[in-house]
Design brief:
373 residues; alpha/beta; Rossmann fold; 2 domains; 15 strands; globular; binds nicotinamide-adenine-dinucleotide
């Protein structure tokens, strides 16, 4: 197969889908890899690093899309890239088709076979291609908290660590999943008083096993959230809020319970989601204040740590990309039900049920389009 690795065009997106080591894995198996010039720059890889592992460098996205069987990238396809889509092309990336109707149109009209990282599952029902980025987002969210609690960065001026003779800072984390556990691990290791809340007792059990004793594990209900809001210095939201929910876990009114100039780090970043006052921000302009509470809601935290996140992302996605290259996309999808769960479009048909429902358009189950039933 011919694999094309693009240079990402989203602002501040420094990740690249594949490391030079990853390229070596394709080349060893007899595949051809094209890399767009400069694709690895933000992650610390030069064109030469890729060439040394057997890749060929192409100057423009036109050439890359035109010559490749499978485009291997990080972010969704942006409108500037729609003109490169064509029948038979395979795209393996984060797609979020339910949020981008025009992208779904472009994938279907051009009969692209697209597989979304975020929908690939594992045998435990987890999302193995989301997990590594969530962990980095949780940890990166705590690093942001270290920054935006500093007076010189507009915060109230506390150091998020245990200092003798001084009250220990309190950090509340809602959601003990991948990002919440990552945040709690760092926050606790700095000696803070950490409380993590979840509605899933199995997640709290898991948190108990892996986190140190300075982390309190609370069941997530309104009373416990209110108790935490009154005492916390930093609130971190790490839950995925269903798009259909119109209510909030932390309403605008509830912010009045918090100490002035406290910080909310909304890792989940669902616009008016679990936190009513959340709206997405960027690395260039990361914080704003509502009701006297500082909000940090950057929606691509891992982009700040490309040399870490490119490796973890590639480690997670590469086995699937190799499977598709080795077997051909159709056979790989037939053989691997976890990969098949990520199939978004196939030869002009929408195959992702939730996007069909959200965008009210017809969809066909992957098993049907693949001729398995
Ligand atoms: N900002 C970023 O850059 C970035 C990067 C990666 C992921 N994310 C987002 O972070 C969010 C969390 O991802 P994750 O992988 O950690 O999710 P996850 O599914 O691993 O964890 C979510 C946890 O929240 C818990 N939960 C659900 N409802 C709850 C409630 N009412 N109270 C308390 N806990 C509750 C669940 O039981 C689960 O344990 C997602 O929305 C994801 O899209 C953001």
């Amino acid at each position: 197969m011919i694999i094309g690795i693009t240079k990402e065009i989203k602002a501040n997106e420094n990740r690249v889908a594949c490391t030079p080591e990853g390229v070596n894995e394709f080349v060893k198996r007899g595949h051809t890899v094209y890399v767009e010039s400069g694709a690895g720059c933000g992650s610390g890889f030069s064109d030469e690093d890729y060439q040394n592992q057997g890749a060929k460098i192409l100057k423009t996205p036109e050439e890359l899309y035109g010559k490749s069987d499978m485009i291997y990238k990080v972010k969704e396809i942006f409108p500037e890239e729609y003109k490169f889509l064509r029948e038979g092309l395979i795209v393996f990336t984060y797609i979020h088709s339910n949020a981008h109707r025009d992208q779904t149109d472009a994938l279907l009209e051009n009969k692209v076979t697209s597989i979304a990282y975020e929908d690939v599952t594992d045998k435990n029902g987890g999302f193995p291609l989301l997990k590594p980025m969530s962990e980095i987002a949780g940890k990166g969210g705590f690093i942001a908290a270290l920054n935006f609690t500093q007076k010189i960065h507009g915060g109230k001026g506390i150091l998020l660590t245990r200092v003798h003779g001084v009250r220990t800072p309190e950090i509340t984390i809602i959601g003990a999943g991948n990002s919440g556990l990552g945040a709690a691990e760092l926050a606790a290791s700095f000696g803070n008083k950490v409380t993590i809340l979840d509605v899933n007792m199995n997640q709290l059990e898991k948190a108990k096993e892996i986190l140190p004793p300075n982390v309190e594990l609370l069941y997530s209900n309104e009373q416990n959230i209110i108790k935490c809001l009154r005492r916390t210095d930093v609130l971190m939201n790490c839950i995925l809020w269903p798009k259909s929910r119109k209510d909030h876990l932390v309403s605008r009114d509830m912010l009045k319970l918090m100490k002035p100039e406290s910080l909310i780090v909304d890792v989940a970043c669902d616009e008016a989601g679990a936190i009513e006052t959340c709206r997405s921000t960027t690395h260039a302009d990361p914080v704003y204040t509502e009701e006297g509470i500082i909000h940090y809601c950057v929606d691509n935290i891992p982009a700040a740590f490309p040399q870490t996140s490119t490796y973890t992302l590639c480690n997670a996605t590469l086995p699937f990309a190799l499977e598709m290259a080795d077997k051909g996309v159709k056979q790989a999808l037939i053989d691997d039900k976890y990969l098949r769960r990520g199939l978004t479009s196939y030869e002009g048909e929408l195959t992702l049920e939730e996007t069909g429902k959200k965008q009210q358009r017809p969809y066909t189950p992957p098993e049907k389009v693949l001729g398995m039933e």
